[in-house]
Amino acid sequence: xxxxxxxxxxxxxxxxxxxxxxxxxxxxxxxxxxxxxxxxxxxxxxxxxxxxxxxxxxxxxxxxxxxxxxxxxxxxxxxxxxxxxxxxxxxxxxxxxxxxxxxxxxxxxxxxxxxxxxxxxxxxxxxxxxxxxxxxxxxxxxxxxxxxxxxxxxxxxxxxxxxxxxxxxxxxxxxxxxxxxxxxxxxxxxxxxxxxxxxxxxxxxxxxxxxxxxxxxxxxxxxxxxxxxxxxxxxxxxxxxxxxxxxxxxxxxxxxxxxxxxxxxx
Amino acid sequence: xxxxxxxxxxxxxxxxxxxxxxxxxxxxxxxxxxxxxxxxxxxxxxxxxxxxxxxxxxxxxxxxxxxxxxxxxxxxxxxxxxxxxxxxxxxxxxxxxxxxxxxxxxxxxxxxxxxxxxxxxxxxxxxxxxxxxxxxxxxxxxxxxxxxxxxxxxxxxxxxxxxxxxxxxxxxxxxxxxxxxxxxxxxxxxxxxxxxxxxxxxxxxxxxxxxxxxxxxxxxxxxxxxxxxxxxxxxxxxxxxxxxxxxxxxxxxxxxxxxxxxxxxxxxxxxxxxxxxxxxxxxxxxxxxxxxxxxxxxxxxxxxxxxxxxxxxxxxxxxxxxxxxxxxxxxxxxxxxxxxxxxxxxxxxxxxxxxxxxxxxxxxxxxxxxxxxxxxxxxxxxxxxxxxxxxxxxxxxxxxxxxxxxxxxxxxxxxxxxxxxxxxxxxxxxxxxxxxxxxxxxxxxxxxxxxxxxxxxxxxxxxxxxxxxxxxxxxxxxxxxxxxxxxxxxxxxxxxxxxxxxxxxxxxxxxxxxxxxxxxxxxxxxxxxxxxxxxxxxxxxxxxxxxxxxxxxxxxxxxxxxxxxxxxxxxxxxxxxxxxxxxxxxxxxxxxxxxxxxxxxxxxxxxxxxxxxxxxxxxxxxxxxxxxxxxxxxxxxxxxxxxxxxxxxxxxxxxxxxxxxxxxxx
Lengths: 266, 666
What we know:
A: eight-stranded parallel barrel, 11 helices, 48% helix, B: eight-stranded mixed β-sheet, 28 strands
């Protein structure tokens, strides 16, 4: 299993300088990928812009959207962005797409929530048909999401949770892959949150970021990985569950978070 | 700290005990609407694993309860004229009334306040309010928990009986109205719980919908007179009910937390309700202690700990409820298979686990299927079907899609019947089809349903494109139908020359013949006409086993339902199909599939037992245990197993100092 790290593009107080320093350091460290989240109505960086900047200061790591909200973006423009980013990064881009979980991201973008599944399928068919060699992941937990993944993508991007939840979703992803008659296996990507030091700041951010889920936000906070031991257990659990790439997202905007993560993984 | 528990059932009382025990400084009040000696229902049942957690949580209660327990380790199945027995299952049960008395005593001893006859009409003020007020919880309805309540299973009614059963006893009794069944178990030295259940239409036909309590008691007493050996049935608000399945998106809202049936129910047929409820209380009390009485943190812990356990139990309970709803369709099964099917209904017991609990039982199932006293497990039982002898249930070779003609290919790589050759030895299933509107696509490793830039013209039952950017097909006209039928006949002849054992016609997944079967893709009033014409024509020239690959449901609100799929299967069987290869969905691009391990097994089960046709099923089965359980229980005749890479394939080791070691020993 490879381990990637999230860019601090949604954490409070992150600025452009931190994003670039973080990207450089991750590129020099043990990480195989740098990934970004996507949120419209939240103080955060636009994911494609952030990854384009990261592409300029990195040589090696893969750059991934984990995931970008597909339907709020015009399909042809999205395909062009993806192709550009893949070319700027010399083939290091992985496009993760999903429906997203927030109604207000759609409202603010002026895109109807209704029909978003069909829109995502059309985008995927377009991107798959036009762009050769671009790695595509699809996220989501519904039956249609798994079918979409198996039909058009190279792998599955899980939305986070304990290893057991990942294993269950991975089983469904593989079942869909077989059902659609795809040869081989889907790539399986997982994710988790960490705060090493600054735990309260990290937890507050998660509470705020996931406030729209109601009381469920506290469960996400409870799952925040706040010690080296917790990270090691989590990594082992995901490895046993068959994960190919596990991306750990920061919850606090400080380069020391990345340094401590490197130590925890060493 | 002040805790108010609403509801004085096992979950609420047990929580009060555990909280007072953990810290006598905690002020705990239990509010119960009924009087202390009022109780409804008869006995409650536990499995052994619960007892361990009760012992650890409060040895005094555990001792008091287990002292009065009825215990047994057998399941008796009274089916047709015989009695089948399975051993090695650990159960215990107690009178609900006795259980509550013991919990009351322990509450008093520990200083929890119990208030009876209190009807709660507002959420009480407290640091923590525990909604332990049952499936129809009042407290839950005052908050936002994302509650869903839906009925599952059949009609059922609780009685007591003075016949003391000596095992968990299932009774299945055929009547002129349909099948009735009983779940009965002893709960003390004098009495048993006796639950009668039947499908809703059976209940109506028998006139139970218009009987009063005593009339329905008398009806059941007469019906099960033999099983009751002349003893009586007793009522206690014994009304026929629908079981409410309760789920909640979250189990706490502010300072209010749900436990027991208020949080989740599990169908009575797996006997887990009280177990889950008392385990909830243990987890909640432990969470509060571990978190130093920080309520917010403890409630998150509680939900995280209990959520997955409850989800698994509810899934098993729903499988079991669904089994009892359709058990009338299993009465054609021979006793050994019927019993094995019953024991494995919820997915929690498999062939492998039952072999450990009760090796004699699985040996009998194996022997019944294998035809010899000592037989290998079910998947090795040979099968005779359509003049073909399958040496076992799993080792046959599927050809993959082979097109009847070049324009029937899915991708340019798809073989046609003219360039396909059977793979080496073994029993070959040739899967023959025409891609229809899913044709002319790019190679499958790139993706599915991605149209070629310059593909060939497509045909289908209607002129609607399959997916985004797919070409619009032409409607297959009369001449086209004749030509297609002839191409299937020609391909069947060719397959015969090639020595193929099993010929499978592809009527699934929205390919050309499948597109005729669904109202989503064929407006015709008689959608089966043309596919049946093709089946009959092929049947005319194909002497051996003939299979059809079928999407049993379209997974779409306006498409074919499972009932439609069963009707289609009957028609196919009558047209000479020997075997249905069970698939689902893909008739249209935007269906709503349900993927999980073994997701096609339940469909195969219904098809095999309701349409009475042999089935082959895949759906991502990865273990031989799944195949043994499916075949043994009569859920399918053949299984497609995806075996993962064998862990015993040696991987190369990193270079070592083995030379040095060799030198030393030399």
